[in-house]
């Protein structure tokens, strides 16, 4: 039985994520839950997130989800989505500096107020919102069936800067080239929203539901 747990800590578009996972047909059971026991019994785990990282981290720690995530990554595949990806880093620049989970070395930085297109000089909006091309920097099982430079849907004002460049498995551009996906061992995380990214997003979720955690 292939069970996937979507971690519910009150900060994420949980219904949309769960429905997209169900729509792939690759999971026998999708459960949205804050219960550590249920999460740890699942075969795969998704850590979603939207909103301010300070609020997300406060709820993650209050509910003990930080320790649950650390336990999950010892034994099964974990997918981080949007702020769920940012939460895996050491620290975010948001609110003057917000400590995160420290699963991956690196920081989460702000795009800033003076973001411009390097080719045209046009002013770019922050948050970065809408469809953008994702360039795969290295092969990975979660890219199976997804074309190079496929478009995914983004909504974010902050981006991840891994301390180890090899962690980056995909990039995108918005005023600057930034990390769109990271991976190490059995953890994969994306800045974009697969559940809002139509066919490509569903393909990525389906790949995750078949993934055994090997790169």
Name the structural class: alpha/beta
The order of strands across the largest sheet is 2-1-3-4-13-12-11-8-9
Q: How would you sum up the major sheet?
A: 9 strands, mixed
- Low-pLDDT residue intervals, each spanning 5 or more residues: none
Query: What gyration radius follows from the Cα positions, in whole Å?
Result: 16 Å
Q: What is the number of helical segments per DSSP (H or I, 4+ residues)?
A: 6
Helix content: 10-25%
Question: Descriptors for this entry?
Answer:
24% helix; 6 helices; globular; 13 strands; 215 residues; 9-stranded mixed beta sheet; alpha/beta; 4-stranded mixed beta sheet
Q: What does this protein look like?
A:
- By secondary structure, the chain is of the alpha/beta class.
- It is 24% helix and 31% strand.
- Helix 1 links the parallel strand 1 and strand 2.
- The longest helix has 13 residues.
- It is globular, with a radius of gyration of 16 Å.
- It starts with a strand and ends in a 5-residue tail after the last helix.
Describe the secondary-structure layout:
Blueprint: E1 3-7, H1 14-23, E2 29-33, H2 36-41, E3 44-47, H3 53-62, H4 65-72, E4 78-81, H5 83-86, E5 91-92, E6 98-99, E7 106-110, E8 128-136, E9 150-156, E10 158-162, E11 168-173, E12 177-184, E13 187-190, H6 198-210
Parallel strand pairs: 1-2, 1-3, 3-4, 4-13, 5-7
Antiparallel strand pairs: 5-6, 7-10, 8-9, 8-11, 11-12, 12-13
In short:
The protein has six helices and 13 strands. With 215 residues, it is of the alpha/beta class.
């Amino acid at each position: 039985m292939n069970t996937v747990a979507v971690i519910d800590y009150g900060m994420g578009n949980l219904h949309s994520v769960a429905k997209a996972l169900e729509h792939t047909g690759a999971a026998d059971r999708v459960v949205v839950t804050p219960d550590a026991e249920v999460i740890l019994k699942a075969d795969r785990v998704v850590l979603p997130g939207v909103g301010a990282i300070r609020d997300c981290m406060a709820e993650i720690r209050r509910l003990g989800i930080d320790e649950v995530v650390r336990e999950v990554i010892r034994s099964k595949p974990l997918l981080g989505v949007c702020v769920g990806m940012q939460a895996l880093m050491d620290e975010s620049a948001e609110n003057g500096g917000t400590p995160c989970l420290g699963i991956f070395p690196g920081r989460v930085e702000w795009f800033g107020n003076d973001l411009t297109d390097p080719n045209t000089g046009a002013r770019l909006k922050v948050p970065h919102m809408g469809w953008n091309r994702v360039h795969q920097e290295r092969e990975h099982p979660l890219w199976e069936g997804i074309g190079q430079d496929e478009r995914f849907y983004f909504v974010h004002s902050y981006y991840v800067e891994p301390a180890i460049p090899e962690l980056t498995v995909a990039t995108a551009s918005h005023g600057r080239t930034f990390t769109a996906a990271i991976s190490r061992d059995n953890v994969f995380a994306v800045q974009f929203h697969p559940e809002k990214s139509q066919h490509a997003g569903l393909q990525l979720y389906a790949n995750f539901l078949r993934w055994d955690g090997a790169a």
